[in-house]
Amino acid sequence: MATPKRDNPTMSRRAVIVLVVVYALLAVAVTVILFPVFWMASSSLKPQSELFARNMTMLPVRWTLENFRNVWEGTAFPTYFWNSFKVSALSTACSVIISMYAAYAIARIKFAGSYAFSLLLLITQMFPHILLVIPLFVIIQKLGLFNTHTALVIAYTSFSIPFTVWMLRGFFEAIPAELEEAAVIDGASMMGTFHRIILPLAGPGIAAVTMFGFIRGWNEFLFALVLLQNHDLFTLPIGLASFQEEYTFRWDLILAGASIITLPVLFFFLVMQRFIVQGLLGGAVKG
After folding, report:
1. pLDDT, tens digit, 9 for 90 and up, residues 125-143
2. 193: buried, middle or exposed (CB in 10 Å: 19+, 13-18, 0-12)?
3. 43 in Cβ contact with 257 (< 8 Å)
4. From the CB of residue 8, how many other CB atoms can be counted at a distance below 10 Å?
5. Potential cystine with 94: which of 120, 157, 238, 252 (Cβ 3.0-4.6 Å)?
6. Is 175 exposed, middle or buried (0-12, 13-18, 19+ CB in 10 A)?
7. Going by C-beta distance under 8 Å and a sequence separation of 6 or more, which residues neighbour residue 51?
8. How high is the pLDDT of residue 27?
9. pLDDT at residue 287, rounded to an integer
10. Residues 181-240: pLDDT tens digits?
């Protein structure tokens, strides 16, 4: 009669040690990544005298919201905030709507070169955007859109589409084709199937690409700097850069403004994190 196998205590101990080491390394990585954010938030709550004190402290000695009041009421920050939100929302909506149909066509309609086209979309993300600044500037100027938010919406949409198409393509391919076949048998058209069946199932994937598209537009600096000249049209990144005075930086305004900028992104992540994780895992099944 065979004796039952006993668990190897050495292997169990080794697994625990590996787990402890992995979690310790992750804790160190998270601390390194989040420390600048903590320092920014902490410094934004300090009076200006503490920002340049000889003996700086991690937390404010005297807590104050004066920096936030100054940046919101004493500068054009509310205008920059609205400009960024408008441009990011419009470019995200355009890129997601276009990408939904393009990704579905690539995932379901098998045409010659469909896979090569998908790879081409991915390859476009390898090139730095600075290579396209001059050609884009020339095109925008010839279209008469220079120094307008429309130029930014076009630029952000065009650069977001390859990424969103690639992600949504993998997510659509992970949805069983039998659902569409059953809908066709019941008399649904291809577009009807897409709108009534596929899109509801693709909700987490769409939420994920929406989030990434919005953050991309929200944080973009280079094209806004090149395509905008009017201060009333500035977005948040170049608006904060304009807080530099002739001989000094207004760190109190910059830190408070940077803290405000992170709030919408943090809010979106907290509200939509479940959908983002589902979208990323769904898109990773295929593609």
Report:
1. 777 878 888 888 999 999 9
2. buried
3. no
4. 10
5. 157
6. buried
7. 43, 251, 252, 255
8. 94
9. 43
10. 888 787 878 788 888 888 888 888 888 888 888 988 898 999 999 999 898 999 999 988
User: Rounded to an integer, what distance in angstroms lies between the CA atom of residue 13 and that of residue 67?
Assistant: 52
Q: What is the distance between the alpha carbons of residues 61 and 47, in angstroms, rounded to a whole number?
A: 9
What DSSP assignment string belongs to 56-83?
--SS-SS---HHHHHHHHSSSHHHHHHH
Angle, CA 127 vertex, CA 122 and CA 131 arms, to 5°: 145
Say if CB 257 and CB 74 are below 8 A apart: no
Give one DSSP letter per residue of the chain, joined into a string: -PPPPPP-HHHHHHHHHHHHHHHHHHHHHHHHHHHHHHHHHHHHTS-HHHHT-SS--SS-SS---HHHHHHHHSSSHHHHHHHHHHHHHHHHHHHHHHHHHHHHHHHHS--TTHHHHHHHHHHGGGS-GGGGHHHHHHHHHHTT-TTSHHHHHHHHHHHHHHHHHHHHHHHHHHS-HHHHHHHHHTT--HHHHIIIIIHHHTHHHHHHHHHHHHHHHHH--HHHHHH---GGG--HHHHHHTTB-SS-B-HHHHHHHHHHHHHHHHHHHHHHHHHHHHHHHHHTS--
Tokens 């009534």 belong to residue: 196
Q: Alpha carbon of 99 to those of 88, 135, 162, 164, 179: distances in Å?
A: 16, 23, 8, 6, 21
Q: Are 8 and 26 in contact (CB under 8 A)?
A: no
- Chain position carrying tokens 């094209």: 223
Give the CA-trace dihedral at 123, 127, 129, 131, to 10 degrees: -130
